[in-house]
Amino acid sequence: MATTEPNDPRATLRGGLPDRYLxxxxxxxxxxxxxxxxxxxxxRKRIGPAGFRVGKHLRxxxxxxxxxxxxxxxxxxxx
Length: 79
Prior knowledge:
This protein is mainly α. 52% of the residues lie in helices and 10% in strands.
């Protein structure tokens, strides 16, 4: 009798991204950035992934970050 691992639909929808909102520190880790200040500069210049505030905390939707990465890759391929 073959056993199959249960599939988590959230993992499929997110493409393996975490099921929580990301912090600026998470982006630093994901993209190997020099510091969290780079993330804040992206936000000020409106060139990074779209983020939102929860009180005083900045958060990013993993799906929005993935869409931003995909968009950047498409721009690189078109150039």
